Amino acid sequence: MAKRNTRELILSVSLELFNEFGEPNVTTNHIADEADISPGNLYYHFRSKDDIVLELFKRFLVRFKPLIDIPENILFQAEDLWFQLHLSFELKGEYRFLYRNLADLIARIPDLDKAMRGLLMRERQAAWNSLSGLEQAGALQIEPLQKDLLTDNLLLALTYWIPFADLREPGGLDNSTAQISAIARVLLMVTPYLREPEKTQFTALAASYLTHSA
Amino acid sequence: MAKRNTRELILSVSLELFNEFGEPNVTTNHIADEADISPGNLYYHFRSKDDIVLELFKRFLVRFKPLIDIPENILFQAEDLWFQLHLSFELKGEYRFLYRNLADLIARIPDLDKAMRGLLMRERQAAWNSLSGLEQAGALQIEPLQKDLLTDNLLLALTYWIPFADLREPGGLDNSTAQISAIARVLLMVTPYLREPEKTQFTALAASYLTHSA
DNA sequence: GTCTATATCTAGATAGAC
DNA sequence: GTCTATCTAGATATAGAC
């Protein structure tokens, strides 16, 4: 709601509406209406609707990149993974419209296509590096093939868990409670490959988050 | 391409175009054009575009329901799971436009919303029952909480693996090779909880499928 | 910077002849 | 059943006054 200026207002209103109704179902008139400005004014500040989407994506990107900038040889603790997931899901929840219509957005907006594919590749690498970190810390033991598959499965969950949860319980991810549940579920994909004592410790930790929140 | 009559032609052309370009990016004019009929003729056979989508969904449903009609107390072998996954992914590949735009389709078409949510619930139950079957056959050992989480993760993969793979490699799922790789990946989500000898046996089987196909 | 009014375009859908 | 021609609605985007 921060009304620093009209441009910012348009962006924040757009983000809200996109998240709630899905980007294809929100017209520039709806945005202008909700922001209490005229359609013409909106087009003074943005050349097109896609331009709004791209600006929102850019802002998402700026905050997301540091989160997946995980060096290859980091010494990673299990708690680090938890924390990293928490920040990541929180941010994606804020910009969840991007993930709800991923396929069509990138089909329509070439610039977004390029950027998003690159982002997914980076994120995959980040997940892979995280697992490597756990290995080096002695907490994780996994075969190379399994590691590769687990990485893909993690990336799948990181990409589509929010739309998936929204599907089953629309608007259910508005509260942080549901998000914590999501994080726990993703984390538990890793626990089968953890060694003791981390395995038991983490299963219990995730379980406790789950039970008092889902 | 089966041209039994115009109605069937429209359906098969629609399915092809929807799968290739995404349903929102295919207009009724495109369909008519590709089917070499007039737009007016299309609307003689279908009241609306949504009507076409619904009819396609109905046909998907008729073939999919038997696949997820898995009794609660079935004695399940690991191979059964593999086979079931194979049929399931093949069918979903045929109708993959449904999964590419799931959120928006059900937001727009109320009848589809109801049916699709019901279907997802059934499919989740089917996955759960499959795990139960493996437990009863002595092949699977898993804690109740883990079982629940695994079921959700399986459902996530069953729902979004195809759009996810399409994202990374557009059109990559056209050949059955890529689909086998997908099945192997999903199946490997279960292997950490399998007992010996099934565990080793299945890891090897899935790995062999993966290596000579991906 | 903001408004009103309007242009343009495209999609879904219909009417009526054949 | 099929066609041509057309309507209507709604969305993006622009023009020009204030």
Descriptive notes:
The structure is a homodimer. Chain A has about 210 residues and is an all-alpha fold. Chain A folds into 2 domains: about 5-45, Orthogonal Bundle (Arc Repressor Mutant, subunit A), CATH 1.10.10; about 55-214, Tetracycline Repressor, domain 2 (Orthogonal Bundle). Helices cover about 70% and strands about 0% of the residues of chain A. Chain A is built from 11 helices and no strands. Chain A has helices spanning about 5-20, 30-35, 40-45, 50-65, 80-95, 95-100, 100-110, 110-135, 145-170, 175-185, 200-210. In chain A, α5 (about 80-95) packs across α10 and α7 crosses α8 (about 110-135). The longest helix of chain A has 27 residues, at about 110-135. At the A-B interface, α7, α9 and α11 of A face α7, α9 and α11 of B. The first copy, chain A, binds a DNA duplex (18 and 18 nucleotides) through α3.
List keywords for this structure.
homodimer; 214 residues; mainly alpha; Arc Repressor Mutant, subunit A; Tetracycline Repressor, domain 2; 11 helices; 72% helix; elongated; DNA-binding
Oligomerization state: homodimer
User: How many angstroms does the end-to-end distance of chain A come to?
Assistant: 30 Å
Count every helix of chain A, treating DSSP H or I runs of 4 or more residues as helices.
Answer: 11
- Would you report the number of β strands of chain A? 0
Radius of gyration of chain A: 19 Å
Largest sheet of chain A: none
Largest interface: A-B, 37 and 38 residues
Strand content of chain A: under 5%
Question: Helices and strands of chain A, in N-to-C order?
Answer: HHHHHHHHHHH
CATH class of the largest domain in chain A: Mainly Alpha
Helix share, percent of chain A: over 70%
* Average pLDDT reading of chain A: 91
